[in-house]
Here is the input.
Amino acid sequence: MKNKKVVQRPPMKLSKGLFFRLFTYLKPYKGRLVVSFFMILLFLFGNVGGTVMLTPLIAGLGGTDPTPSFLWMTFDSKLQFLGAMVGILIGMYVIAILGNYVLNLMFIHISADSLYRMRVDLFNHMQKLPISFFDTHTHGDLMSHFTNDIDVMSEFYSRVLPNLVQCVLQVIAVVASMITISAQINSWYMLALVALMVVGMFVVTKTFGSLSKKNFVAQQKAIGKLTGHVEEMIAGQKVIKVFNHEQAVMDEDSQINDELRVVATKANSYANMMMPTMGNMTHVFYIAMAVVGTITAIGLTGDALSAHLGALATFLILLRQFSNPVTQIAQHVNYVFLATAGAERVFAVLDTPQEVDNGYVTLVYATKDEEGNLQESPTHTGIWAWKHPHGDGTITYHEVKGDVRFEDVTFGYEEGKTVLHDVSLFAKPGQKIAFVGSTGAGKTTITNLINRFYDVPDGKIRYDGININKIKKADLRRSLGMVLQDTHLFTGTVMDNIRYGKLDATDEECIAAAKTANAHFFITHLPQGYDTMLTSDGANLSQGQRQLIAIARAAVADPPVLILDEATSSIDTRTEWLIQKGMDALMEGRTVFVIAHRLSTVRNSNAIMVLEKGQIIERGSHDELIAQKGKYYQLYTGMFELS
Here is the structure.
Protein backbone atom coordinates (compact mmCIF):
# COMPACT_ATOMS: atom_id res chain seq x y z
CA MET A 1 0.00 0.00 0.00
CA LYS A 2 1.32 3.38 -0.96
CA ASN A 3 1.19 6.28 1.41
CA LYS A 4 -0.01 9.52 -0.10
CA LYS A 5 -0.04 12.89 1.49
CA VAL A 6 -3.68 13.84 1.77
CA VAL A 7 -4.40 17.52 1.42
CA GLN A 8 -7.34 18.72 3.46
CA ARG A 9 -9.67 20.92 1.46
CA PRO A 10 -10.57 24.15 3.25
CA PRO A 11 -14.19 24.01 4.38
CA MET A 12 -16.71 25.99 2.39
CA LYS A 13 -19.03 28.20 4.36
CA LEU A 14 -22.66 27.10 4.34
CA SER A 15 -23.71 30.36 2.77
CA LYS A 16 -26.73 31.35 0.75
CA GLY A 17 -24.56 31.08 -2.33
CA LEU A 18 -23.85 27.42 -1.65
CA PHE A 19 -27.51 26.72 -0.86
CA PHE A 20 -28.81 28.42 -3.97
CA ARG A 21 -26.14 26.74 -6.06
CA LEU A 22 -28.07 23.55 -5.47
CA PHE A 23 -30.92 25.12 -7.41
CA THR A 24 -28.81 25.69 -10.52
CA TYR A 25 -29.35 22.04 -11.37
CA LEU A 26 -33.11 22.67 -11.44
CA LYS A 27 -32.98 25.39 -14.12
CA PRO A 28 -33.52 23.04 -17.10
CA TYR A 29 -36.80 21.89 -15.56
CA LYS A 30 -38.61 25.22 -15.26
CA GLY A 31 -41.72 23.80 -16.96
CA ARG A 32 -41.94 20.91 -14.52
CA LEU A 33 -41.37 23.26 -11.60
CA VAL A 34 -44.25 25.47 -12.72
CA VAL A 35 -46.52 22.42 -12.92
CA SER A 36 -45.29 21.30 -9.50
CA PHE A 37 -46.03 24.72 -8.01
CA PHE A 38 -49.54 24.54 -9.46
CA MET A 39 -49.96 21.10 -7.86
CA ILE A 40 -48.96 22.58 -4.49
CA LEU A 41 -51.65 25.24 -4.87
CA LEU A 42 -54.20 22.53 -5.68
CA PHE A 43 -53.13 20.63 -2.57
CA LEU A 44 -53.49 23.73 -0.39
CA PHE A 45 -56.82 24.57 -1.97
CA GLY A 46 -58.15 21.14 -1.09
CA ASN A 47 -56.48 20.68 2.27
CA VAL A 48 -56.68 24.12 3.90
CA GLY A 49 -59.81 25.11 1.99
CA GLY A 50 -61.56 21.95 3.14
CA THR A 51 -60.78 22.82 6.74
CA VAL A 52 -62.04 26.39 6.36
CA MET A 53 -65.30 24.92 5.00
CA LEU A 54 -66.01 23.58 8.49
CA THR A 55 -66.87 27.09 9.71
CA PRO A 56 -69.94 27.60 7.46
CA LEU A 57 -70.83 23.89 7.83
CA ILE A 58 -71.04 24.01 11.65
CA ALA A 59 -72.63 27.48 11.63
CA GLY A 60 -75.26 26.38 9.11
CA LEU A 61 -76.15 23.16 10.91
CA GLY A 62 -76.22 24.78 14.37
CA GLY A 63 -77.97 27.99 13.35
CA THR A 64 -81.66 28.79 13.70
CA ASP A 65 -82.27 29.29 9.96
CA PRO A 66 -84.06 26.14 8.61
CA THR A 67 -82.92 26.99 5.05
CA PRO A 68 -79.16 27.58 5.37
CA SER A 69 -77.17 29.09 2.49
CA PHE A 70 -73.59 28.92 1.26
CA LEU A 71 -72.16 31.42 -1.20
CA TRP A 72 -74.83 31.83 -3.90
CA MET A 73 -76.60 28.56 -3.01
CA THR A 74 -79.66 28.31 -0.74
CA PHE A 75 -80.86 24.91 0.46
CA ASP A 76 -84.39 23.80 1.34
CA SER A 77 -83.32 21.91 4.44
CA LYS A 78 -80.35 21.34 6.69
CA LEU A 79 -80.11 17.74 5.44
CA GLN A 80 -79.77 18.95 1.86
CA PHE A 81 -77.21 21.51 3.04
CA LEU A 82 -75.23 18.78 4.84
CA GLY A 83 -75.19 16.52 1.75
CA ALA A 84 -73.99 19.32 -0.52
CA MET A 85 -71.30 20.44 1.89
CA VAL A 86 -70.02 16.87 2.39
CA GLY A 87 -69.86 16.47 -1.41
CA ILE A 88 -67.87 19.70 -1.73
CA LEU A 89 -65.49 18.60 1.04
CA ILE A 90 -64.91 15.19 -0.58
CA GLY A 91 -64.19 16.90 -3.90
CA MET A 92 -61.71 19.30 -2.31
CA TYR A 93 -59.85 16.52 -0.49
CA VAL A 94 -59.69 14.44 -3.68
CA ILE A 95 -58.12 17.46 -5.41
CA ALA A 96 -55.61 17.71 -2.54
CA ILE A 97 -54.68 14.02 -2.85
CA LEU A 98 -54.24 14.22 -6.64
CA GLY A 99 -52.19 17.42 -6.36
CA ASN A 100 -49.88 15.84 -3.78
CA TYR A 101 -49.47 12.66 -5.87
CA VAL A 102 -48.58 14.52 -9.06
CA LEU A 103 -46.22 16.82 -7.09
CA ASN A 104 -44.24 13.90 -5.67
CA LEU A 105 -44.16 12.15 -9.04
CA MET A 106 -42.82 15.26 -10.76
CA PHE A 107 -40.05 15.76 -8.22
CA ILE A 108 -38.96 12.13 -8.43
CA HIS A 109 -38.19 12.71 -12.13
CA ILE A 110 -36.66 16.15 -11.47
CA SER A 111 -34.42 14.69 -8.76
CA ALA A 112 -33.26 11.77 -10.90
CA ASP A 113 -32.45 14.04 -13.87
CA SER A 114 -30.71 16.67 -11.73
CA LEU A 115 -28.50 14.16 -9.95
CA TYR A 116 -27.70 12.48 -13.26
CA ARG A 117 -26.36 15.81 -14.52
CA MET A 118 -24.47 16.41 -11.26
CA ARG A 119 -22.78 12.99 -11.41
CA VAL A 120 -21.85 13.53 -15.05
CA ASP A 121 -20.46 17.01 -14.27
CA LEU A 122 -18.48 15.65 -11.32
CA PHE A 123 -17.04 12.71 -13.25
CA ASN A 124 -16.22 14.80 -16.33
CA HIS A 125 -14.56 17.45 -14.18
CA MET A 126 -12.44 14.82 -12.45
CA GLN A 127 -11.18 13.64 -15.82
CA LYS A 128 -9.77 17.13 -16.40
CA LEU A 129 -8.05 17.51 -13.04
CA PRO A 130 -4.26 17.24 -12.83
CA ILE A 131 -2.53 14.10 -11.60
CA SER A 132 -1.45 16.02 -8.49
CA PHE A 133 -5.10 16.12 -7.35
CA PHE A 134 -5.38 12.33 -7.34
CA ASP A 135 -1.97 12.02 -5.73
CA THR A 136 -3.22 13.96 -2.71
CA HIS A 137 -6.73 12.50 -2.26
CA THR A 138 -7.65 8.95 -1.32
CA HIS A 139 -9.70 7.05 -3.87
CA GLY A 140 -12.30 6.11 -1.27
CA ASP A 141 -12.89 9.73 -0.31
CA LEU A 142 -13.36 10.66 -3.97
CA MET A 143 -15.76 7.75 -4.42
CA SER A 144 -17.82 8.95 -1.45
CA HIS A 145 -18.70 12.07 -3.45
CA PHE A 146 -20.58 9.90 -5.95
CA THR A 147 -22.30 7.85 -3.25
CA ASN A 148 -22.77 9.40 0.19
CA ASP A 149 -22.67 13.07 -0.78
CA ILE A 150 -24.93 12.82 -3.80
CA ASP A 151 -27.27 10.44 -1.97
CA VAL A 152 -28.07 13.10 0.64
CA MET A 153 -28.71 15.58 -2.16
CA SER A 154 -31.03 13.03 -3.76
CA GLU A 155 -33.13 13.11 -0.59
CA PHE A 156 -33.11 16.91 -0.73
CA TYR A 157 -34.25 17.14 -4.35
CA SER A 158 -36.83 14.33 -4.36
CA ARG A 159 -38.51 14.72 -0.97
CA VAL A 160 -37.28 17.59 1.16
CA LEU A 161 -37.50 20.42 -1.37
CA PRO A 162 -41.11 19.84 -2.54
CA ASN A 163 -42.30 19.16 1.01
CA LEU A 164 -40.46 22.21 2.30
CA VAL A 165 -42.08 24.51 -0.27
CA GLN A 166 -45.43 22.85 0.36
CA CYS A 167 -45.11 23.28 4.12
CA VAL A 168 -44.08 26.94 3.88
CA LEU A 169 -47.02 27.77 1.63
CA GLN A 170 -49.32 25.76 3.87
CA VAL A 171 -48.17 27.76 6.91
CA ILE A 172 -48.84 30.98 5.01
CA ALA A 173 -52.29 29.77 3.93
CA VAL A 174 -53.18 28.59 7.43
CA VAL A 175 -52.01 31.83 9.07
CA ALA A 176 -54.00 33.84 6.55
CA SER A 177 -57.08 31.71 7.31
CA MET A 178 -56.56 32.17 11.06
CA ILE A 179 -56.34 35.93 10.67
CA THR A 180 -59.56 35.92 8.67
CA ILE A 181 -61.39 33.75 11.20
CA SER A 182 -60.07 35.79 14.17
CA ALA A 183 -61.38 38.94 12.51
CA GLN A 184 -64.77 37.33 11.90
CA ILE A 185 -65.26 36.40 15.58
CA ASN A 186 -63.38 39.47 16.82
CA SER A 187 -60.92 37.34 18.88
CA TRP A 188 -57.51 38.97 18.62
CA TYR A 189 -56.36 37.07 21.69
CA MET A 190 -56.30 33.90 19.61
CA LEU A 191 -54.33 35.66 16.87
CA ALA A 192 -51.83 36.93 19.45
CA LEU A 193 -51.28 33.35 20.62
CA VAL A 194 -50.59 32.27 17.03
CA ALA A 195 -48.01 35.05 16.65
CA LEU A 196 -46.37 34.02 19.91
CA MET A 197 -46.25 30.40 18.74
CA VAL A 198 -44.65 31.38 15.41
CA VAL A 199 -41.93 33.37 17.17
CA GLY A 200 -41.28 30.53 19.62
CA MET A 201 -40.95 27.95 16.87
CA PHE A 202 -38.61 30.20 14.90
CA VAL A 203 -36.34 30.57 17.94
CA VAL A 204 -36.28 26.79 18.48
CA THR A 205 -35.49 26.11 14.82
CA LYS A 206 -32.69 28.66 14.72
CA THR A 207 -31.14 27.44 17.98
CA PHE A 208 -31.09 23.73 17.22
CA GLY A 209 -30.31 24.31 13.54
CA SER A 210 -27.14 26.26 14.25
CA LEU A 211 -25.98 23.51 16.63
CA SER A 212 -26.61 20.66 14.22
CA LYS A 213 -25.43 22.06 10.87
CA LYS A 214 -21.71 22.12 11.75
CA ASN A 215 -21.93 18.52 12.94
CA PHE A 216 -23.63 17.45 9.70
CA VAL A 217 -20.66 18.87 7.79
CA ALA A 218 -18.28 16.96 10.06
CA GLN A 219 -20.39 13.83 9.58
CA GLN A 220 -20.04 13.92 5.77
CA LYS A 221 -16.28 14.41 6.04
CA ALA A 222 -16.04 11.50 8.48
CA ILE A 223 -18.02 9.28 6.10
CA GLY A 224 -15.60 10.18 3.30
CA LYS A 225 -12.64 9.34 5.52
CA LEU A 226 -14.18 6.01 6.51
CA THR A 227 -14.97 5.14 2.88
CA GLY A 228 -11.37 5.90 1.90
CA HIS A 229 -10.03 3.74 4.71
CA VAL A 230 -12.27 0.78 3.85
CA GLU A 231 -11.40 1.01 0.16
CA GLU A 232 -7.68 1.03 0.93
CA MET A 233 -7.90 -1.88 3.37
CA ILE A 234 -9.90 -4.03 0.95
CA ALA A 235 -7.39 -3.34 -1.82
CA GLY A 236 -4.53 -4.28 0.52
CA GLN A 237 -5.99 -7.47 2.00
CA LYS A 238 -3.08 -9.64 0.86
CA VAL A 239 -0.53 -7.33 2.44
CA ILE A 240 -2.55 -7.17 5.66
CA LYS A 241 -2.74 -10.93 5.95
CA VAL A 242 0.91 -11.48 5.01
CA PHE A 243 2.06 -9.28 7.87
CA ASN A 244 -0.69 -10.40 10.29
CA HIS A 245 -1.95 -6.85 10.72
CA GLU A 246 -5.65 -7.77 10.96
CA GLN A 247 -5.93 -6.58 14.55
CA ALA A 248 -4.11 -3.31 13.86
CA VAL A 249 -6.39 -2.65 10.90
CA MET A 250 -9.47 -3.42 12.97
CA ASP A 251 -8.29 -1.06 15.70
CA GLU A 252 -7.72 1.72 13.18
CA ASP A 253 -11.13 1.10 11.61
CA SER A 254 -12.72 1.20 15.05
CA GLN A 255 -11.08 4.56 15.76
CA ILE A 256 -12.29 6.08 12.46
CA ASN A 257 -15.76 4.64 13.04
CA ASP A 258 -15.79 6.13 16.52
CA GLU A 259 -15.01 9.57 15.09
CA LEU A 260 -18.01 9.17 12.77
CA ARG A 261 -20.17 7.96 15.67
CA VAL A 262 -19.36 11.04 17.76
CA VAL A 263 -20.17 13.65 15.10
CA ALA A 264 -23.19 11.70 13.81
CA THR A 265 -24.56 11.42 17.34
CA LYS A 266 -24.19 15.14 17.93
CA ALA A 267 -25.74 16.07 14.59
CA ASN A 268 -28.73 13.76 14.96
CA SER A 269 -29.20 14.50 18.66
CA TYR A 270 -29.77 18.19 18.01
CA ALA A 271 -31.90 17.34 14.99
CA ASN A 272 -34.06 14.85 16.90
CA MET A 273 -34.53 17.25 19.81
CA MET A 274 -36.08 19.80 17.50
CA MET A 275 -39.20 17.82 16.54
CA PRO A 276 -40.40 16.82 20.04
CA THR A 277 -39.77 20.37 21.23
CA MET A 278 -41.92 21.68 18.42
CA GLY A 279 -44.58 19.05 19.09
CA ASN A 280 -44.83 19.89 22.78
CA MET A 281 -45.04 23.59 21.99
CA THR A 282 -48.01 22.98 19.69
CA HIS A 283 -49.78 20.94 22.38
CA VAL A 284 -49.39 23.78 24.87
CA PHE A 285 -50.65 26.37 22.41
CA TYR A 286 -53.51 24.08 21.34
CA ILE A 287 -54.74 23.89 24.93
CA ALA A 288 -54.25 27.63 25.41
CA MET A 289 -56.17 28.31 22.21
CA ALA A 290 -59.06 26.06 23.26
CA VAL A 291 -59.25 27.78 26.67
CA VAL A 292 -59.16 31.29 25.17
CA GLY A 293 -61.76 30.35 22.57
CA THR A 294 -64.05 28.86 25.19
CA ILE A 295 -63.75 31.90 27.43
CA THR A 296 -64.62 34.24 24.58
CA ALA A 297 -67.70 32.10 23.81
CA ILE A 298 -69.16 32.65 27.28
CA GLY A 299 -72.28 34.75 27.08
CA LEU A 300 -72.97 34.02 23.39
CA THR A 301 -76.28 32.45 22.32
CA GLY A 302 -78.13 31.43 19.18
CA ASP A 303 -76.52 32.04 15.78
CA ALA A 304 -73.66 33.98 17.35
CA LEU A 305 -72.74 30.97 19.48
CA SER A 306 -73.00 28.59 16.50
CA ALA A 307 -70.81 30.86 14.38
CA HIS A 308 -68.30 31.20 17.20
CA LEU A 309 -68.12 27.44 17.85
CA GLY A 310 -67.75 26.74 14.11
CA ALA A 311 -64.94 29.27 13.88
CA LEU A 312 -63.28 27.88 17.03
CA ALA A 313 -63.45 24.29 15.77
CA THR A 314 -62.01 25.37 12.43
CA PHE A 315 -59.36 27.45 14.21
CA LEU A 316 -58.24 24.48 16.33
CA ILE A 317 -58.04 22.20 13.28
CA LEU A 318 -56.07 24.89 11.47
CA LEU A 319 -53.78 25.07 14.46
CA ARG A 320 -53.06 21.37 13.99
CA GLN A 321 -52.52 21.99 10.30
CA PHE A 322 -50.17 24.80 11.27
CA SER A 323 -48.14 22.77 13.74
CA ASN A 324 -47.66 19.77 11.43
CA PRO A 325 -45.96 21.65 8.58
CA VAL A 326 -43.94 23.73 11.05
CA THR A 327 -42.69 20.51 12.65
CA GLN A 328 -41.92 19.10 9.21
CA ILE A 329 -40.06 22.29 8.33
CA ALA A 330 -37.97 21.81 11.46
CA GLN A 331 -37.20 18.25 10.37
CA HIS A 332 -36.47 19.31 6.79
CA VAL A 333 -34.05 21.97 8.00
CA ASN A 334 -31.81 19.14 9.21
CA TYR A 335 -31.92 17.50 5.79
CA VAL A 336 -31.12 20.87 4.22
CA PHE A 337 -28.01 21.12 6.40
CA LEU A 338 -27.10 17.54 5.49
CA ALA A 339 -27.62 18.23 1.77
CA THR A 340 -25.56 21.41 1.87
CA ALA A 341 -22.83 19.49 3.70
CA GLY A 342 -22.76 16.99 0.83
CA ALA A 343 -22.97 19.81 -1.71
CA GLU A 344 -20.04 21.54 -0.01
CA ARG A 345 -17.81 18.54 -0.70
CA VAL A 346 -19.05 18.01 -4.25
CA PHE A 347 -18.76 21.66 -5.23
CA ALA A 348 -15.30 21.81 -3.64
CA VAL A 349 -14.22 19.24 -6.25
CA LEU A 350 -16.08 21.02 -9.05
CA ASP A 351 -14.34 24.26 -8.07
CA THR A 352 -10.88 22.66 -8.16
CA PRO A 353 -9.02 24.25 -11.11
CA GLN A 354 -8.77 21.98 -14.12
CA GLU A 355 -5.51 20.94 -15.68
CA VAL A 356 -4.12 23.95 -17.53
CA ASP A 357 -3.21 23.38 -21.18
CA ASN A 358 -2.02 26.33 -23.23
CA GLY A 359 -0.54 24.15 -25.95
CA TYR A 360 -1.37 24.76 -29.57
CA VAL A 361 0.88 22.33 -31.44
CA THR A 362 -1.04 19.19 -32.37
CA LEU A 363 -0.19 15.67 -33.54
CA VAL A 364 -1.49 14.64 -36.97
CA TYR A 365 -1.10 11.85 -39.49
CA ALA A 366 1.03 12.89 -42.45
CA THR A 367 2.25 11.84 -45.88
CA LYS A 368 5.19 12.96 -47.95
CA ASP A 369 4.91 14.24 -51.50
CA GLU A 370 7.47 13.56 -54.22
CA GLU A 371 9.66 16.39 -52.94
CA GLY A 372 9.59 15.08 -49.38
CA ASN A 373 7.28 17.80 -48.04
CA LEU A 374 4.84 16.80 -45.30
CA GLN A 375 1.11 16.99 -45.86
CA GLU A 376 -1.64 16.28 -43.36
CA SER A 377 -3.49 13.00 -43.86
CA PRO A 378 -6.91 11.93 -42.49
CA THR A 379 -5.74 8.32 -42.01
CA HIS A 380 -2.80 6.65 -40.33
CA THR A 381 0.08 6.34 -42.79
CA GLY A 382 2.87 5.34 -40.44
CA ILE A 383 4.16 8.93 -40.40
CA TRP A 384 3.38 11.35 -37.56
CA ALA A 385 3.87 15.10 -37.74
CA TRP A 386 3.65 18.09 -35.43
CA LYS A 387 1.20 20.67 -36.79
CA HIS A 388 2.60 24.02 -35.70
CA PRO A 389 0.45 27.13 -36.29
CA HIS A 390 2.24 30.48 -36.19
CA GLY A 391 1.16 33.99 -35.30
CA ASP A 392 1.15 35.14 -38.93
CA GLY A 393 -1.45 32.49 -39.84
CA THR A 394 0.98 30.07 -41.47
CA ILE A 395 1.22 26.41 -40.50
CA THR A 396 4.33 24.29 -40.61
CA TYR A 397 4.68 20.53 -40.21
CA HIS A 398 7.56 18.76 -38.48
CA GLU A 399 7.95 15.02 -38.70
CA VAL A 400 7.86 13.29 -35.33
CA LYS A 401 11.29 11.79 -34.83
CA GLY A 402 11.41 11.24 -31.07
CA ASP A 403 14.20 13.66 -30.23
CA VAL A 404 13.75 14.52 -26.52
CA ARG A 405 16.01 16.90 -24.63
CA PHE A 406 16.12 18.20 -21.05
CA GLU A 407 17.81 21.57 -20.57
CA ASP A 408 18.72 22.51 -16.99
CA VAL A 409 15.48 21.15 -15.56
CA THR A 410 14.83 21.74 -11.86
CA PHE A 411 11.62 20.40 -10.34
CA GLY A 412 9.95 19.61 -7.03
CA TYR A 413 6.47 18.30 -6.21
CA GLU A 414 6.28 20.60 -3.22
CA GLU A 415 7.67 24.07 -2.77
CA GLY A 416 11.05 23.94 -1.08
CA LYS A 417 11.58 20.22 -1.79
CA THR A 418 13.54 19.85 -5.01
CA VAL A 419 13.51 16.41 -6.65
CA LEU A 420 15.54 17.15 -9.80
CA HIS A 421 18.52 19.52 -9.80
CA ASP A 422 19.64 21.09 -13.11
CA VAL A 423 19.10 17.89 -15.10
CA SER A 424 20.24 17.99 -18.74
CA LEU A 425 20.04 15.01 -21.07
CA PHE A 426 19.14 14.13 -24.62
CA ALA A 427 17.69 11.15 -26.45
CA LYS A 428 18.25 11.09 -30.18
CA PRO A 429 15.63 9.48 -32.43
CA GLY A 430 15.71 5.70 -32.10
CA GLN A 431 17.92 5.67 -29.03
CA LYS A 432 17.22 3.64 -25.91
CA ILE A 433 17.91 5.64 -22.78
CA ALA A 434 17.96 3.91 -19.39
CA PHE A 435 17.65 5.42 -15.94
CA VAL A 436 19.01 3.60 -12.92
CA GLY A 437 19.47 4.65 -9.35
CA SER A 438 18.12 4.31 -5.86
CA THR A 439 14.45 4.74 -5.02
CA GLY A 440 13.63 8.44 -4.85
CA ALA A 441 16.52 9.44 -7.08
CA GLY A 442 14.11 11.04 -9.59
CA LYS A 443 13.80 8.38 -12.31
CA THR A 444 9.98 8.27 -12.47
CA THR A 445 9.82 12.05 -12.07
CA ILE A 446 11.64 12.45 -15.39
CA THR A 447 8.99 10.37 -17.19
CA ASN A 448 6.22 12.29 -15.40
CA LEU A 449 7.66 15.52 -16.79
CA ILE A 450 7.90 14.14 -20.33
CA ASN A 451 4.17 13.33 -20.11
CA ARG A 452 3.44 16.78 -18.66
CA PHE A 453 1.74 15.23 -15.66
CA TYR A 454 3.56 18.11 -14.00
CA ASP A 455 4.92 21.26 -15.64
CA VAL A 456 8.52 22.35 -15.30
CA PRO A 457 9.05 25.65 -13.40
CA ASP A 458 12.74 25.96 -14.29
CA GLY A 459 14.44 24.77 -17.44
CA LYS A 460 12.98 23.40 -20.67
CA ILE A 461 12.02 20.08 -22.20
CA ARG A 462 12.07 19.97 -25.98
CA TYR A 463 10.44 17.33 -28.16
CA ASP A 464 11.69 17.41 -31.76
CA GLY A 465 12.90 20.93 -31.06
CA ILE A 466 9.51 22.09 -29.76
CA ASN A 467 9.07 23.18 -26.16
CA ILE A 468 6.59 20.63 -24.78
CA ASN A 469 4.62 23.46 -23.12
CA LYS A 470 3.57 24.45 -26.66
CA ILE A 471 2.23 20.96 -27.43
CA LYS A 472 -1.32 20.12 -26.44
CA LYS A 473 -1.22 17.62 -23.61
CA ALA A 474 -3.57 15.15 -25.30
CA ASP A 475 -1.44 15.15 -28.47
CA LEU A 476 1.80 14.93 -26.50
CA ARG A 477 0.56 11.91 -24.56
CA ARG A 478 -0.82 10.32 -27.74
CA SER A 479 2.72 10.30 -29.09
CA LEU A 480 4.00 8.48 -26.00
CA GLY A 481 3.43 4.82 -25.22
CA MET A 482 3.81 4.09 -21.53
CA VAL A 483 3.98 0.87 -19.52
CA LEU A 484 3.78 1.52 -15.79
CA GLN A 485 5.11 -0.56 -12.96
CA ASP A 486 1.63 -0.63 -11.40
CA THR A 487 -0.46 -2.25 -14.11
CA HIS A 488 -4.15 -1.36 -14.20
CA LEU A 489 -6.62 -3.42 -16.21
CA PHE A 490 -10.23 -2.38 -16.73
CA THR A 491 -13.35 -4.49 -16.44
CA GLY A 492 -13.83 -6.00 -19.90
CA THR A 493 -12.36 -8.61 -22.19
CA VAL A 494 -8.66 -9.15 -22.81
CA MET A 495 -9.21 -7.74 -26.30
CA ASP A 496 -10.85 -4.62 -24.86
CA ASN A 497 -7.90 -4.02 -22.54
CA ILE A 498 -5.38 -4.31 -25.37
CA ARG A 499 -7.50 -2.08 -27.59
CA TYR A 500 -7.45 0.57 -24.85
CA GLY A 501 -4.12 1.68 -26.32
CA LYS A 502 -5.86 2.49 -29.61
CA LEU A 503 -9.64 2.49 -29.51
CA ASP A 504 -10.06 2.09 -33.27
CA ALA A 505 -7.61 -0.81 -33.52
CA THR A 506 -8.88 -3.92 -35.30
CA ASP A 507 -8.83 -7.37 -33.72
CA GLU A 508 -5.96 -8.28 -36.02
CA GLU A 509 -3.91 -5.30 -34.79
CA CYS A 510 -4.58 -6.23 -31.17
CA ILE A 511 -3.54 -9.83 -31.77
CA ALA A 512 -0.38 -8.67 -33.57
CA ALA A 513 0.45 -6.43 -30.59
CA ALA A 514 -0.08 -9.35 -28.21
CA LYS A 515 2.28 -11.48 -30.30
CA THR A 516 4.88 -8.70 -30.20
CA ALA A 517 4.65 -8.66 -26.40
CA ASN A 518 4.71 -12.50 -26.33
CA ALA A 519 1.28 -12.45 -24.66
CA HIS A 520 -0.51 -14.31 -27.45
CA PHE A 521 0.40 -17.79 -26.18
CA PHE A 522 -1.04 -17.45 -22.68
CA ILE A 523 -4.08 -15.49 -23.94
CA THR A 524 -5.08 -18.29 -26.33
CA HIS A 525 -4.95 -20.71 -23.40
CA LEU A 526 -7.41 -18.67 -21.33
CA PRO A 527 -10.97 -20.09 -21.06
CA GLN A 528 -12.39 -17.77 -23.74
CA GLY A 529 -9.12 -16.61 -25.26
CA TYR A 530 -9.20 -12.93 -26.19
CA ASP A 531 -12.86 -12.80 -25.12
CA THR A 532 -12.03 -13.78 -21.53
CA MET A 533 -13.64 -11.28 -19.16
CA LEU A 534 -11.31 -9.52 -16.72
CA THR A 535 -12.63 -8.14 -13.44
CA SER A 536 -11.17 -6.62 -10.27
CA ASP A 537 -8.13 -5.23 -12.08
CA GLY A 538 -7.37 -8.59 -13.70
CA ALA A 539 -7.37 -10.56 -10.45
CA ASN A 540 -7.91 -13.79 -12.41
CA LEU A 541 -4.48 -13.33 -14.07
CA SER A 542 -0.98 -13.58 -12.67
CA GLN A 543 1.00 -10.39 -12.15
CA GLY A 544 3.24 -11.27 -15.07
CA GLN A 545 0.28 -11.88 -17.39
CA ARG A 546 -1.22 -8.53 -16.43
CA GLN A 547 2.08 -6.86 -17.25
CA LEU A 548 2.22 -8.57 -20.65
CA ILE A 549 -1.24 -7.27 -21.52
CA ALA A 550 -0.15 -3.77 -20.50
CA ILE A 551 2.85 -4.03 -22.82
CA ALA A 552 0.60 -5.24 -25.65
CA ARG A 553 -1.66 -2.25 -24.96
CA ALA A 554 1.30 0.08 -25.49
CA ALA A 555 2.37 -1.83 -28.60
CA VAL A 556 -0.99 -1.48 -30.36
CA ALA A 557 -0.79 2.32 -29.97
CA ASP A 558 2.32 2.27 -32.21
CA PRO A 559 3.77 5.48 -30.66
CA PRO A 560 7.03 7.10 -31.77
CA VAL A 561 8.29 7.23 -28.15
CA LEU A 562 8.04 4.51 -25.49
CA ILE A 563 8.39 4.89 -21.73
CA LEU A 564 8.89 1.67 -19.78
CA ASP A 565 8.69 2.21 -16.02
CA GLU A 566 9.83 -1.09 -14.51
CA ALA A 567 7.92 -2.81 -17.34
CA THR A 568 9.42 -6.22 -16.62
CA SER A 569 9.58 -5.99 -12.85
CA SER A 570 6.75 -8.51 -12.37
CA ILE A 571 7.92 -11.02 -14.95
CA ASP A 572 10.06 -14.07 -14.27
CA THR A 573 13.46 -14.47 -15.89
CA ARG A 574 12.27 -16.80 -18.66
CA THR A 575 9.31 -14.61 -19.55
CA GLU A 576 11.57 -11.58 -19.41
CA TRP A 577 13.84 -13.19 -22.00
CA LEU A 578 10.87 -13.94 -24.26
CA ILE A 579 9.42 -10.48 -23.88
CA GLN A 580 12.75 -8.79 -24.42
CA LYS A 581 12.84 -10.28 -27.93
CA GLY A 582 9.42 -8.82 -28.63
CA MET A 583 10.33 -5.51 -27.03
CA ASP A 584 13.43 -5.25 -29.21
CA ALA A 585 11.18 -5.48 -32.27
CA LEU A 586 8.74 -3.00 -30.75
CA MET A 587 11.51 -0.52 -29.90
CA GLU A 588 13.01 -0.66 -33.39
CA GLY A 589 13.16 2.87 -34.78
CA ARG A 590 11.60 4.39 -31.65
CA THR A 591 13.01 6.51 -28.86
CA VAL A 592 12.71 4.53 -25.65
CA PHE A 593 13.10 5.56 -22.02
CA VAL A 594 13.58 2.66 -19.62
CA ILE A 595 13.49 2.66 -15.84
CA ALA A 596 14.71 -0.63 -14.41
CA HIS A 597 16.13 -2.18 -11.29
CA ARG A 598 17.23 -5.24 -13.22
CA LEU A 599 20.40 -3.95 -14.79
CA SER A 600 20.46 -6.90 -17.20
CA THR A 601 17.56 -5.26 -19.06
CA VAL A 602 19.48 -2.05 -19.79
CA ARG A 603 22.77 -3.46 -21.04
CA ASN A 604 21.88 -2.82 -24.69
CA SER A 605 20.84 0.80 -24.05
CA ASN A 606 22.53 3.52 -26.09
CA ALA A 607 22.99 5.54 -22.93
CA ILE A 608 22.53 4.80 -19.25
CA MET A 609 21.89 7.64 -16.80
CA VAL A 610 22.77 6.99 -13.17
CA LEU A 611 20.77 9.26 -10.87
CA GLU A 612 21.46 10.07 -7.26
CA LYS A 613 19.49 12.62 -5.22
CA GLY A 614 17.98 14.22 -8.31
CA GLN A 615 21.21 14.61 -10.24
CA ILE A 616 22.82 12.64 -13.05
CA ILE A 617 26.14 11.49 -11.60
CA GLU A 618 27.16 9.16 -14.44
CA ARG A 619 26.18 8.68 -18.07
CA GLY A 620 27.38 6.47 -20.88
CA SER A 621 26.95 3.04 -22.44
CA HIS A 622 27.15 -0.12 -20.39
CA ASP A 623 30.75 -0.78 -21.39
CA GLU A 624 31.77 2.82 -20.76
CA LEU A 625 30.26 2.86 -17.29
CA ILE A 626 31.77 -0.48 -16.38
CA ALA A 627 35.16 0.85 -17.45
CA GLN A 628 34.72 3.91 -15.20
CA LYS A 629 34.25 1.61 -12.19
CA GLY A 630 31.96 4.14 -10.54
CA LYS A 631 28.48 3.80 -9.06
CA TYR A 632 27.08 1.82 -12.01
CA TYR A 633 29.98 -0.62 -11.78
CA GLN A 634 29.23 -1.11 -8.08
CA LEU A 635 25.55 -1.68 -8.82
CA TYR A 636 26.20 -4.10 -11.66
CA THR A 637 28.78 -6.18 -9.80
CA GLY A 638 26.69 -6.29 -6.65
CA MET A 639 29.05 -4.18 -4.59
CA PHE A 640 26.17 -1.77 -3.99
CA GLU A 641 22.49 -2.70 -4.08
CA LEU A 642 19.58 -0.61 -5.24
CA SER A 643 17.02 0.17 -2.60
Notes: DSSP finds 19 helices and 18 strands in the chain. Residues 362-399 form one domain. The CA atoms of residues 93 and 578 lie 81 Å apart.
